[in-house]
Amino acid sequence: MSSFDIVVEIRNAILSVSGITNVYDSLVTPDKVSSVVSPYACIGEFRKIQGRVMDESEQKCFVDVFIWTRYKGKKQCMELADAFESSLAELNRDYFLEAAYFDYDEESGWSLAQITLRTYLE
Length: 122
Prior knowledge:
single chain; alpha+beta; five-stranded mixed sheet; 2 helices; 5 strands; 23% helix; 38% strand
């Protein structure tokens, strides 16, 4: 299994969530945000570091996932994030929630769920 396989697995888990319209492999730039359909998700930064075993045959991976919605408030983002976490539980690989952050920006009208996942690559 490769790093790319992890990203594909996460992408498929996101797309299985009812309501999420699309998944991008980078953050949508402000000049293009008006053309995307809400809610959508982005797979952000992917980081690998040394894993749990001493022979370095394993790597610990962290993946940031962003869920954006035009819903006024954090409720929809939280519901979509919960559904995404549930879809991860159905996968063969173990994914662990490292952190989750929820925010609503009144100025832009966008709500955000930022989720950091941890998994292991052998």
